[in-house]
Amino acid sequence: MSFNEKIRAMYVEQIEGIKDAGIFKQERFIHSAQDADIEVEFPTGSSLKKVINMCANNYLGLSSHPEVVKAAHEGLDTRGYGMSSVRFICGTQDIHQELERKVTEFLGTEDTILFPSCMDANAGVFEAILTDEDIMISDRLVHASIIDGIRLCSAMHDTFKHSNMIHLEKKLLLHADKRLKVVITDGVFSMDGDTAKLDEMAELCEKYDAMLFVDDSHATGFIGKTGRGTHEKYGVFGKIDIITTTFGKALGGASGGCVSGRKELVELCRQKARPYLFSNTIAPVVVSGVLKVLDILSASTERRDKLEKNTAYWRKGLTEAGFVLKDGDTPIVPVMLFNAKLSQNISNDLYDEGIYAIGFFFPVVAKGQARIRTQISAGHEIHHLDKALSAFTKVGRKYDILGKTKQEIIEMYGL
Q1: In this structure, how many other beta carbons lie within 10 angstroms of the beta carbon of residue 175?
Q2: Which of 153, 312, 336, 346 sits most deeply, having the most CB atoms within 10 A of its CB?
Q3: How far apart are alpha carbons 412 and 414 in whole angstroms?
Q4: Domains defined for the chain, CATH in brackets
Q5: Is 218 noted as a catalytic residue in this protein?
Q6: Does the annotation count 249 as an active-site position?
Q7: What predicted TM-score, i.e. pTM, was given to this entire model?
Protein backbone atom coordinates (compact mmCIF):
# COMPACT_ATOMS: atom_id res chain seq x y z
CA MET A 1 0.00 0.00 0.00
CA SER A 2 1.36 3.40 -0.89
CA PHE A 3 2.02 6.10 1.65
CA ASN A 4 -0.80 8.22 0.24
CA GLU A 5 -1.77 11.80 1.07
CA LYS A 6 -4.54 10.74 3.43
CA ILE A 7 -2.09 8.72 5.54
CA ARG A 8 0.47 11.52 5.41
CA ALA A 9 -2.14 14.07 6.52
CA MET A 10 -3.10 11.86 9.48
CA TYR A 11 0.48 11.77 10.76
CA VAL A 12 1.03 15.47 10.10
CA GLU A 13 -2.05 16.21 12.18
CA GLN A 14 -0.63 14.16 15.07
CA ILE A 15 2.69 15.99 14.87
CA GLU A 16 1.00 19.39 14.74
CA GLY A 17 -1.06 18.43 17.77
CA ILE A 18 2.12 17.75 19.71
CA LYS A 19 3.51 21.13 18.64
CA ASP A 20 0.29 22.95 19.57
CA ALA A 21 0.41 21.40 23.04
CA GLY A 22 3.88 22.90 23.53
CA ILE A 23 5.49 19.51 24.15
CA PHE A 24 7.28 18.92 20.84
CA LYS A 25 10.67 17.29 21.45
CA GLN A 26 13.49 18.99 19.59
CA GLU A 27 16.97 17.57 19.27
CA ARG A 28 19.98 19.54 20.41
CA PHE A 29 23.28 18.93 18.63
CA ILE A 30 26.44 18.87 20.73
CA HIS A 31 29.56 20.00 18.84
CA SER A 32 32.04 19.04 21.53
CA ALA A 33 33.00 16.12 23.72
CA GLN A 34 30.52 15.20 26.46
CA ASP A 35 31.59 17.11 29.56
CA ALA A 36 30.40 19.63 32.12
CA ASP A 37 30.97 22.39 29.55
CA ILE A 38 29.64 21.69 26.06
CA GLU A 39 28.91 23.55 22.81
CA VAL A 40 25.36 23.12 21.55
CA GLU A 41 23.49 23.95 18.36
CA PHE A 42 19.85 24.70 19.21
CA PRO A 43 17.59 25.17 17.42
CA THR A 44 18.92 23.59 14.23
CA GLY A 45 20.99 26.08 12.25
CA SER A 46 21.69 28.37 15.20
CA SER A 47 25.12 29.56 16.23
CA LEU A 48 26.92 27.37 18.75
CA LYS A 49 26.30 28.21 22.39
CA LYS A 50 28.55 27.28 25.32
CA VAL A 51 26.44 25.84 28.12
CA ILE A 52 26.80 23.85 31.33
CA ASN A 53 25.41 20.34 30.94
CA MET A 54 23.08 19.49 33.82
CA CYS A 55 21.29 16.49 32.34
CA ALA A 56 23.86 13.90 31.21
CA ASN A 57 24.30 10.40 32.60
CA ASN A 58 28.02 11.22 32.82
CA TYR A 59 27.94 10.75 36.59
CA LEU A 60 31.66 10.23 37.14
CA GLY A 61 32.83 12.67 34.47
CA LEU A 62 34.62 9.92 32.56
CA SER A 63 33.04 10.31 29.11
CA SER A 64 35.99 12.38 27.87
CA HIS A 65 38.61 11.44 30.49
CA PRO A 66 42.04 11.40 28.82
CA GLU A 67 42.99 7.97 30.18
CA VAL A 68 39.74 6.47 28.93
CA VAL A 69 40.14 8.09 25.52
CA LYS A 70 43.73 6.84 25.35
CA ALA A 71 42.64 3.32 26.21
CA ALA A 72 39.97 3.47 23.50
CA HIS A 73 42.62 4.55 20.96
CA GLU A 74 44.81 1.63 21.99
CA GLY A 75 41.87 -0.73 21.61
CA LEU A 76 41.23 0.66 18.14
CA ASP A 77 44.88 0.21 17.17
CA THR A 78 45.26 -3.33 18.52
CA ARG A 79 41.78 -4.89 18.10
CA GLY A 80 40.23 -2.91 15.24
CA TYR A 81 37.09 -0.85 14.74
CA GLY A 82 34.33 -3.50 14.93
CA MET A 83 33.72 -7.22 15.13
CA SER A 84 31.43 -7.71 12.10
CA SER A 85 29.88 -10.66 13.88
CA VAL A 86 27.88 -11.91 16.84
CA ARG A 87 29.60 -13.51 19.81
CA PHE A 88 29.00 -17.19 19.12
CA ILE A 89 30.27 -17.05 15.52
CA CYS A 90 33.50 -15.03 15.37
CA GLY A 91 32.69 -11.97 17.45
CA THR A 92 34.50 -12.73 20.71
CA GLN A 93 37.92 -11.30 21.44
CA ASP A 94 40.07 -11.85 24.50
CA ILE A 95 39.17 -8.37 25.75
CA HIS A 96 35.46 -9.25 25.80
CA GLN A 97 36.19 -12.14 28.10
CA GLU A 98 38.47 -9.92 30.19
CA LEU A 99 35.69 -7.33 30.61
CA GLU A 100 33.22 -10.00 31.68
CA ARG A 101 35.68 -11.19 34.34
CA LYS A 102 36.31 -7.66 35.61
CA VAL A 103 32.61 -6.77 35.77
CA THR A 104 31.92 -9.99 37.67
CA GLU A 105 34.60 -9.10 40.19
CA PHE A 106 33.43 -5.48 40.47
CA LEU A 107 29.77 -6.40 41.04
CA GLY A 108 30.50 -9.39 43.28
CA THR A 109 28.56 -11.87 41.16
CA GLU A 110 29.29 -15.33 39.73
CA ASP A 111 29.40 -14.58 36.01
CA THR A 112 28.67 -11.85 33.43
CA ILE A 113 27.60 -11.72 29.79
CA LEU A 114 27.95 -8.62 27.60
CA PHE A 115 25.14 -7.13 25.48
CA PRO A 116 25.14 -4.28 22.94
CA SER A 117 23.21 -2.19 25.50
CA CYS A 118 21.41 -2.60 28.81
CA MET A 119 18.17 -2.25 26.88
CA ASP A 120 19.19 -5.37 24.95
CA ALA A 121 20.12 -7.10 28.21
CA ASN A 122 16.68 -6.35 29.64
CA ALA A 123 15.03 -7.40 26.38
CA GLY A 124 16.76 -10.78 26.41
CA VAL A 125 17.10 -11.95 29.99
CA PHE A 126 13.50 -12.76 30.99
CA GLU A 127 12.68 -14.73 27.86
CA ALA A 128 15.90 -16.71 28.28
CA ILE A 129 15.34 -17.84 31.88
CA LEU A 130 11.53 -18.03 32.32
CA THR A 131 8.59 -19.94 30.82
CA ASP A 132 4.81 -19.63 30.94
CA GLU A 133 4.85 -21.54 34.22
CA ASP A 134 6.59 -18.62 35.95
CA ILE A 135 5.69 -15.17 37.27
CA MET A 136 7.43 -11.78 37.01
CA ILE A 137 6.49 -9.30 39.77
CA SER A 138 7.77 -5.81 39.01
CA ASP A 139 7.78 -2.45 40.76
CA ARG A 140 5.30 -0.20 38.97
CA LEU A 141 7.98 2.38 38.16
CA VAL A 142 10.56 0.13 36.50
CA HIS A 143 12.37 1.44 33.44
CA ALA A 144 10.78 1.22 29.99
CA SER A 145 13.39 -1.26 28.79
CA ILE A 146 12.43 -3.65 31.59
CA ILE A 147 8.78 -3.33 30.58
CA ASP A 148 9.73 -4.16 27.00
CA GLY A 149 11.65 -7.23 28.17
CA ILE A 150 8.69 -8.35 30.25
CA ARG A 151 6.40 -8.03 27.22
CA LEU A 152 8.67 -10.32 25.21
CA CYS A 153 8.50 -13.08 27.82
CA SER A 154 5.79 -15.76 28.03
CA ALA A 155 5.79 -15.78 31.84
CA MET A 156 2.89 -14.18 33.69
CA HIS A 157 3.33 -10.62 34.88
CA ASP A 158 2.08 -8.76 37.94
CA THR A 159 3.13 -5.54 39.66
CA PHE A 160 3.46 -4.09 43.14
CA LYS A 161 3.06 -0.48 44.28
CA HIS A 162 6.28 1.51 44.08
CA SER A 163 8.66 0.51 46.90
CA ASN A 164 5.73 -0.89 48.90
CA MET A 165 7.02 -3.99 50.67
CA ILE A 166 3.64 -4.88 52.18
CA HIS A 167 2.11 -4.99 48.70
CA LEU A 168 5.07 -6.98 47.35
CA GLU A 169 4.63 -9.59 50.07
CA LYS A 170 0.94 -9.91 49.19
CA LYS A 171 1.87 -10.53 45.56
CA LEU A 172 4.46 -13.15 46.53
CA LEU A 173 1.82 -14.94 48.59
CA LEU A 174 -0.70 -14.66 45.74
CA HIS A 175 1.68 -16.34 43.30
CA ALA A 176 3.13 -18.92 45.67
CA ASP A 177 2.07 -21.75 43.34
CA LYS A 178 4.20 -20.62 40.40
CA ARG A 179 7.23 -22.67 39.34
CA LEU A 180 9.57 -19.67 39.52
CA LYS A 181 9.02 -16.17 40.91
CA VAL A 182 11.18 -13.18 39.96
CA VAL A 183 10.89 -9.83 41.73
CA ILE A 184 11.96 -7.06 39.36
CA THR A 185 13.13 -3.56 40.27
CA ASP A 186 15.43 -0.72 39.32
CA GLY A 187 18.24 -0.06 41.78
CA VAL A 188 17.92 3.70 41.28
CA PHE A 189 14.70 4.85 39.64
CA SER A 190 15.85 7.06 36.81
CA MET A 191 13.04 9.61 36.79
CA ASP A 192 12.74 10.19 40.55
CA GLY A 193 16.24 9.39 41.83
CA ASP A 194 15.09 7.23 44.75
CA THR A 195 16.50 3.77 45.45
CA ALA A 196 14.88 0.37 45.85
CA LYS A 197 14.75 -1.14 49.34
CA LEU A 198 16.96 -4.01 48.35
CA ASP A 199 17.60 -5.23 51.90
CA GLU A 200 13.88 -5.71 52.51
CA MET A 201 13.30 -7.09 49.03
CA ALA A 202 16.11 -9.63 49.40
CA GLU A 203 14.64 -10.74 52.72
CA LEU A 204 11.19 -11.22 51.18
CA CYS A 205 12.63 -13.10 48.21
CA GLU A 206 14.48 -15.45 50.52
CA LYS A 207 11.34 -15.97 52.61
CA TYR A 208 9.16 -16.79 49.61
CA ASP A 209 11.79 -18.57 47.50
CA ALA A 210 11.86 -15.94 44.76
CA MET A 211 14.69 -14.58 42.64
CA LEU A 212 15.58 -10.88 42.73
CA PHE A 213 16.38 -8.90 39.55
CA VAL A 214 17.89 -5.39 39.70
CA ASP A 215 18.63 -2.99 36.85
CA ASP A 216 21.44 -0.91 38.36
CA SER A 217 22.18 1.30 35.35
CA HIS A 218 21.86 4.53 37.35
CA ALA A 219 23.99 3.22 40.22
CA THR A 220 26.92 1.16 38.96
CA GLY A 221 30.18 3.00 39.60
CA PHE A 222 29.02 5.51 42.22
CA ILE A 223 26.29 4.24 44.56
CA GLY A 224 27.56 2.44 47.66
CA LYS A 225 30.73 3.03 49.66
CA THR A 226 32.99 1.87 46.82
CA GLY A 227 30.57 2.47 43.94
CA ARG A 228 29.56 -1.13 43.34
CA GLY A 229 25.87 -0.25 43.25
CA THR A 230 22.65 -0.32 45.23
CA HIS A 231 23.33 -3.86 46.46
CA GLU A 232 26.42 -2.47 48.20
CA LYS A 233 24.45 0.50 49.58
CA TYR A 234 21.88 -1.84 51.17
CA GLY A 235 24.28 -4.49 52.41
CA VAL A 236 23.10 -7.29 50.12
CA PHE A 237 26.30 -7.66 48.12
CA GLY A 238 26.32 -11.14 46.55
CA LYS A 239 22.63 -11.73 47.31
CA ILE A 240 21.12 -10.42 44.05
CA ASP A 241 20.34 -13.18 41.56
CA ILE A 242 20.38 -11.02 38.41
CA ILE A 243 21.90 -7.57 37.86
CA THR A 244 21.68 -5.74 34.57
CA THR A 245 23.62 -2.56 34.05
CA THR A 246 25.09 -0.30 31.40
CA PHE A 247 28.46 0.99 30.29
CA GLY A 248 26.69 3.99 28.73
CA LYS A 249 26.37 6.05 31.92
CA ALA A 250 28.96 6.25 34.72
CA LEU A 251 31.23 3.59 33.21
CA GLY A 252 32.51 5.75 30.38
CA GLY A 253 29.26 6.78 28.75
CA ALA A 254 29.71 5.04 25.39
CA SER A 255 27.52 1.97 24.90
CA GLY A 256 27.10 -1.62 25.93
CA GLY A 257 25.55 -3.41 28.87
CA CYS A 258 25.48 -6.75 30.61
CA VAL A 259 23.65 -9.37 32.60
CA SER A 260 25.58 -10.35 35.72
CA GLY A 261 24.57 -12.80 38.41
CA ARG A 262 24.09 -16.52 39.05
CA LYS A 263 26.25 -18.49 36.63
CA GLU A 264 23.41 -20.75 35.49
CA LEU A 265 21.24 -17.76 34.57
CA VAL A 266 24.10 -16.11 32.71
CA GLU A 267 24.75 -19.32 30.80
CA LEU A 268 21.10 -19.53 29.75
CA CYS A 269 21.39 -15.97 28.39
CA ARG A 270 24.47 -17.03 26.47
CA GLN A 271 22.51 -19.92 24.95
CA LYS A 272 19.08 -18.33 24.43
CA ALA A 273 18.96 -14.53 24.75
CA ARG A 274 18.03 -13.23 21.30
CA PRO A 275 19.69 -9.76 21.49
CA TYR A 276 22.94 -11.55 22.40
CA LEU A 277 22.63 -14.17 19.68
CA PHE A 278 21.59 -11.83 16.88
CA SER A 279 23.40 -8.53 17.58
CA ASN A 280 26.96 -7.54 16.80
CA THR A 281 29.42 -7.66 19.65
CA ILE A 282 30.36 -4.49 21.55
CA ALA A 283 33.07 -2.65 19.60
CA PRO A 284 36.66 -3.17 20.80
CA VAL A 285 37.16 0.57 21.36
CA VAL A 286 34.27 0.57 23.86
CA VAL A 287 35.48 -2.56 25.64
CA SER A 288 38.96 -1.08 26.00
CA GLY A 289 37.55 2.15 27.41
CA VAL A 290 35.35 0.37 29.96
CA LEU A 291 38.29 -1.76 31.10
CA LYS A 292 40.20 1.43 31.85
CA VAL A 293 37.19 2.89 33.70
CA LEU A 294 37.04 -0.16 35.96
CA ASP A 295 40.76 0.22 36.68
CA ILE A 296 40.20 3.87 37.65
CA LEU A 297 37.26 3.02 39.93
CA SER A 298 39.03 0.09 41.56
CA ALA A 299 42.05 2.27 42.40
CA SER A 300 40.19 5.09 44.17
CA THR A 301 36.75 6.31 45.28
CA GLU A 302 37.76 9.93 44.65
CA ARG A 303 35.27 10.50 41.86
CA ARG A 304 32.24 8.95 43.54
CA ASP A 305 33.13 10.88 46.72
CA LYS A 306 33.24 14.16 44.78
CA LEU A 307 29.95 13.27 43.11
CA GLU A 308 28.35 12.72 46.51
CA LYS A 309 29.51 16.14 47.71
CA ASN A 310 28.37 17.84 44.49
CA THR A 311 24.95 16.22 44.81
CA ALA A 312 24.48 17.41 48.38
CA TYR A 313 25.56 20.95 47.42
CA TRP A 314 23.17 21.06 44.45
CA ARG A 315 20.17 19.69 46.35
CA LYS A 316 20.75 22.09 49.25
CA GLY A 317 20.97 25.06 46.85
CA LEU A 318 17.76 24.19 45.01
CA THR A 319 15.91 23.58 48.28
CA GLU A 320 16.99 26.91 49.73
CA ALA A 321 15.93 28.64 46.50
CA GLY A 322 12.40 27.31 47.02
CA PHE A 323 11.97 24.64 44.33
CA VAL A 324 9.82 21.53 44.78
CA LEU A 325 12.15 18.52 44.63
CA LYS A 326 11.73 14.77 44.75
CA ASP A 327 13.24 13.27 47.89
CA GLY A 328 16.44 11.30 47.38
CA ASP A 329 20.19 11.12 47.87
CA THR A 330 21.33 10.17 44.37
CA PRO A 331 22.76 12.47 41.65
CA ILE A 332 19.33 12.48 39.98
CA VAL A 333 17.57 15.58 41.33
CA PRO A 334 14.19 16.25 39.68
CA VAL A 335 12.83 19.80 39.89
CA MET A 336 9.07 19.27 39.87
CA LEU A 337 6.93 21.55 37.68
CA PHE A 338 3.82 19.35 37.04
CA ASN A 339 2.90 21.12 33.79
CA ALA A 340 4.43 19.90 30.49
CA LYS A 341 4.50 23.25 28.73
CA LEU A 342 5.96 24.94 31.81
CA SER A 343 8.79 22.39 31.84
CA GLN A 344 9.52 23.19 28.18
CA ASN A 345 9.43 26.96 28.76
CA ILE A 346 11.73 26.76 31.75
CA SER A 347 14.12 24.47 29.88
CA ASN A 348 14.31 26.98 27.01
CA ASP A 349 14.88 29.91 29.38
CA LEU A 350 17.61 28.00 31.20
CA TYR A 351 19.29 27.41 27.87
CA ASP A 352 19.25 31.15 27.22
CA GLU A 353 21.03 31.51 30.57
CA GLY A 354 23.71 29.00 29.55
CA ILE A 355 22.28 25.96 31.34
CA TYR A 356 21.41 22.80 29.45
CA ALA A 357 18.59 20.92 31.23
CA ILE A 358 15.67 19.21 29.52
CA GLY A 359 11.98 19.18 30.44
CA PHE A 360 10.43 15.74 30.97
CA PHE A 361 6.71 15.13 30.55
CA PHE A 362 4.21 12.47 29.48
CA PRO A 363 4.77 9.82 28.18
CA VAL A 364 8.31 9.84 29.63
CA VAL A 365 6.78 10.47 33.06
CA ALA A 366 3.18 10.19 34.23
CA LYS A 367 0.70 12.93 33.35
CA GLY A 368 0.89 15.77 35.83
CA GLN A 369 4.45 14.85 36.82
CA ALA A 370 6.39 17.10 34.41
CA ARG A 371 9.80 18.15 35.62
CA ILE A 372 13.32 19.25 34.83
CA ARG A 373 15.47 16.25 35.68
CA THR A 374 18.90 17.50 36.71
CA GLN A 375 21.81 15.09 36.95
CA ILE A 376 25.01 15.88 38.78
CA SER A 377 28.48 14.78 37.71
CA ALA A 378 31.91 14.51 39.27
CA GLY A 379 32.91 16.60 36.26
CA HIS A 380 31.03 19.56 37.73
CA GLU A 381 33.01 22.05 39.76
CA ILE A 382 31.42 24.36 42.34
CA HIS A 383 31.50 27.26 39.87
CA HIS A 384 29.36 25.18 37.48
CA LEU A 385 26.83 24.46 40.21
CA ASP A 386 26.76 28.06 41.43
CA LYS A 387 26.10 29.38 37.92
CA ALA A 388 23.37 26.80 37.40
CA LEU A 389 21.76 27.65 40.74
CA SER A 390 21.78 31.33 39.82
CA ALA A 391 20.10 30.57 36.48
CA PHE A 392 17.49 28.27 38.01
CA THR A 393 16.66 30.90 40.61
CA LYS A 394 16.34 33.65 38.00
CA VAL A 395 14.05 31.56 35.79
CA GLY A 396 12.07 30.25 38.74
CA ARG A 397 11.46 33.83 39.85
CA LYS A 398 10.25 34.72 36.35
CA TYR A 399 7.56 32.05 36.53
CA ASP A 400 6.81 32.80 40.20
CA ILE A 401 7.27 29.22 41.37
CA LEU A 402 9.92 29.78 44.07
CA GLY A 403 8.59 28.90 47.49
CA LYS A 404 5.35 27.62 45.99
CA THR A 405 3.87 24.26 46.92
CA LYS A 406 2.89 21.59 44.43
CA GLN A 407 -0.75 22.58 44.70
CA GLU A 408 -0.01 26.26 44.20
CA ILE A 409 2.02 25.55 41.04
CA ILE A 410 -0.79 23.37 39.69
CA GLU A 411 -3.35 26.10 40.42
CA MET A 412 -1.18 28.59 38.51
CA TYR A 413 -0.34 26.45 35.46
CA GLY A 414 -2.57 23.39 35.56
CA LEU A 415 -1.52 19.76 35.12
Answers
A1: 17
A2: 346
A3: 6
A4: 19-53+301-413 (3.90.1150.10), 66-299 (3.40.640.10)
A5: yes
A6: yes
A7: 0.93
